[in-house]
Amino acid sequence: MNAIILSALCGVVMMFSGILLKNKSAIKYVAIAALLVLIIGNLFQFYGIYTIDIDSKGLLSFDRTGLFFNTIIFVATLAYFILSGSDIERAGPDVAEYFALIFFVLCGVTILTSFNGLLMFFIGIEILSIPLYILTGSDKKNLKSNEASLKYFLMGSFSTGILLMGITLIYGATGSFGLQSTTIKSAVTGFSSAGILAPVGLVLLFISMCFKVSAAPFHFWAPDVYDGAPSVFTSFMATIVKAAGFFAFIKLFAAKSEDFGPGPAWKLILFVIIVATLFIGNITAVFQQSVKRMLAYSSIAQAGFMLFALYSTNDFTKDGILLYTAAYSFATIGIFSILTKMEDYSLDGFNGLSKSQPVLAFTNTVFFLSLSGIPLTAGFFAKYYMLASAIKGGGSLSLVIIAVLFAAVSVYYYFKVIQAMYFKEGVAATNTPITGNFKVALIVLAAIIVILGIYPTALLGFYYF
Amino acid sequence: MPIQYYIYLALSLFSIGVVGVLTRRNAIIIFMCIELMLNATNLLLVAFSKMHHAVALASNTATQVGIEGQLFVFFIMVVAAAEVSVGLAIIVMMYRNTHSVDINFLNRLKN
Amino acid sequence: MAITHIIFWFLTALALVSALMVLLSKNPVYSVLWLIAVFFAISGHYILLNAQFLAIVNMIVYAGAIMVLFLFVIMLMNLDKETEPQKDIWMKVAGVISGGCLLIQLVRLAKDAPEMVNKTALLKTGSIGLIENLGKVLFSDYVVPFEISSVLFLSAMVGAVVIGKK
Q1: Of residues C22, A106, A404, the one with CA closest to residue B30
Q2: What is the pTM of this model?
Q3: Extents of the domains making up chain A
Q4: Which CATH architecture has domain B3-110?
């Protein structure tokens, strides 16, 4: 409860800071301070020291996984604020409001990690989405941003409609919005048993969640929206929001299925979706000339890996999704923070970055290596845990082989950027001078990724102790 | 009234909304069709809530079973109101720049 | 045929015809007006189901506030002419076919659903839809989501200001 209340309060504080503070970078420091309070408040609840206790009548339930996921998300947001805070300042005139909206999104995230019923799930999804529609369209004069916002909005509310129909049918069949025991469980196993409406509702729910996390074949909005949105907000959307969407997705479908495996029909659907997501994400990313658009497709490809957590539910899955969220979010936030500093977003814009900005080029290389899953980076163990869970989950070796093949494809297009930075001549121009603090922050982030790549238990150790 | 009739009615309204989203080009009309979809689910939720209530009423006359369905409808209305305010603001912003609400403009993003 | 049945079928027909007219009207203003008719029909259904609170809220919030907002925006944009360019006819056919398939599939599944056989929705009686009962539950068991939805409104408000400001 700490995180939900504090994040909403932080949002309100940010709204008022816009009136009281005229200095834009002061607003950024207020935001960082508010986020630190949020992290501490969440850790208090994680370690059971102090919790604001409000009886939610069983609508919310807090477990260690959710609270730990909150912590990862908040730390990633902290990295995002530190690295990209100055870019948020330049994104538009309403800096305080952007920070406020980001805190409201975090409130949605905290609800999605603790919901215990379809009602809170629905409200969480909406609190997560509505501020994002606005952040996408925050570059008001830019036509691309407008269009991305409208597209995101129409797609988002359309999928909300489908989501609600799914929830309604499940309610009709089971008579409750609860997650525990009856609802989802009877719906999942219902493929073979007597009920029909609950599985139908579950399929609709599944489709709409695929929309929200941009899994193929419901991914088509994602590249356009990620490309059209201001880069600094794309960074936030593609990492933190996406990871939260996945967490909710997995919590909804798998958390309650520990004592029974999803049925065969279910596995087949997921198999097709995972392969399609990996295929479309990776193959299309190869042909992109703009690094931003390439990252948009690569985020679809990464979604394919995160779906593995849904495919098989066992001990590895929980570790896997936590580690994957951390590895993927940190790396992508780092890449985007460098990308927003570049004058030219195309591949050629990175030519010769190693000459002009060696620190940026080096850290960027680390981030890309982590995304492609090279050993000694966090991305390797993240992918390893995901694939290991699929193998442990029961003989789906073909899926793992396909995933490894596509991971190899992803190495190709990530290396195109590294190649441009190191082996091509050119003057990679930045649009703002690079400060020393920014470089230090990047190096710290890269160091975290390498440390997680060597000792993944460093992160998971916090979770278990 | 048999619950099947309500299911058919709600699904028909829902599908009409889906067809509208798929076939129309005016962003405002698409948005209205989405509202139609939400209303179809609202109607079905209330019907289901009364259905569960009817079942529970047979054994206990003071039961409140089914009330959560109607509260869910209340929350859907809350969310829809918030969504409308944001959505119309986005559509107006788009209109200011392009003087059109035709969603075929959105295809330019692909290039 | 009891009077409630007549009302049920009348409201059903009204809702379906109006919903179709929302789709078929060329002029956006007419679409809005037909949609208001749908909402009134649905409100009628709520009254028939004895969900009086929702019936009133539906009329006030949807038909009253939301649709008037739509109407304002359409008037503001001067879209009251038949300005919508025609979509490719094949796209329309494809849309109608896929929507029709969805409907047929869902209805077929619902028709076969064994859990829905011989279930009825209680008409006219049942007190759960009354404002007293709903209010008591809303402010006791559901007070947390009720308060949390204020975050939603706050973000929508901030958003509308950010987007709407010149």
Answers
A1: C22
A2: 0.93
A3: 261-465
A4: Orthogonal Bundle (1.10)
